[in-house]
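Subject: histidine kinase

B.,
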Amino acid sequence: MPASLTPPSDIALNLALSLISASVAPVLLLDGDLSIVAASQSFLDAFNVSPGDIPGARLADLGDGEWHVPQLWSSLVAATSGGASNRSYEMDLNARHGVRRLILDVQRLDHGNADGIRLLLSIQDVTDVRAKERQNGELIREKAMLVQEVQHRTANSLQIIASVLMQGMRTVGSDDSCAHLRSCAHLRDAHQRVLSVAAVQHQLARSELGDVELRGYITDLCRSIGDSMIRDHNQITLGVTVDDSVASSGQSVSIGLIVTELVINALKHAFPGDREGRIDVEYGARGQGWVLKVRDDGVGMPTDPTTARPGLGTGIVQALARQLGAVLTCTDAAPGACISIVCAAPSSHGAQ
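Prediction pasted inline below.
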C-alpha cells in the first residue's frame, strides 16, 4: 500500500512503536485485551524479561505472575473502557528478587474503535528513593528524640541548681548582717532566674519540634511559675489569655523567657505586705505582628528614682524584645502596671 494511503491507525501504531523502541524508561504498549503489543528494551532489562516472551503475551503472564495485581488490572480495565484517560499511582511489585516500589502511569490512545484502543503503560522504579526517604525520616525522628531528651535533662539540671541555691539562701538567712543579706538577695535572684529558664526548658521538652502552639505553651508555663512561687492562690491569681498563634521553637523560647521574667517580677514587687491581687498574661496576633502584655493590679510603677532603676530582669526582657524585633513599653495601669511587648511585623532578624 502506498505511504499516502496508509490508514491513520497504522501510522499512529508505527509511531507509538518507534517511540517505545527509543524509550530509555520502562514502557509497555497494550491492546484492548491487555495483551502486550510492544515493550521497550529498558523494560526487558529492568524486569528480567526475555524478548521472546513478549509477542502476544498478556501482562499478567509475565515472570512468575507478579504483574497480576488487582490494583493494576482495575486501572487498566477502567482505561480501556474510557473510565479514565490518565491514571497514575504507586504500587508494590513482589518481584523475584524482592519487593519493588513502582510509579505507574496509564495513558489511553483511542482511535475511535475497539480494535484501535491502545494503552501506554510507563513505569518508574522508585524503590531506592522511597528507601532513602524512610531512612531520612527515621534520622529526623531520632534527632527529634535526642533534642527532646537534651531539653528534658537540661530542665532537670536547672531545677537541681535551683534547689542548691535555695539551700544556700537558707544557710545565710540566719545572719542579719548587711553582707549576708545582700548575699541572700543575690542567691534569691539567681534562684528565680534559674527557675525561669528551667520552666521554659520544661515546657519545650514537652512540645514537638517545629512550630509551637502558644496557648498551651504559655498557659503551662504560667501554671508552673504559679505553682512554684504563689503560696496562696486565693491571695494572688494568675490568668492567661492567648489566641491560636504559633511560633517557631526559637521564638517561643524568647517569648517564654519574657513571660517568665515579667511574671516573676510582678510576683516579687507588685504585692508587698501580703497584698491581694491579680496578674494577667495576654498574647495575640495583631496584623502581621503580635502583642504580649503582662498586667497586674498591684502597687504600680515606682516613683522613687532609687528604686526605679532597671534591674537585670528588665535588661534581659529588653534584650529578648530587641532580638524578636519588638518594642517594650511600661505604663501605669491605675491600679498596677502594664508591660507591653509589641512586634509590628515578623522580624527578619528575630529568633529562629
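Residues 133-209 form one domain.

T.
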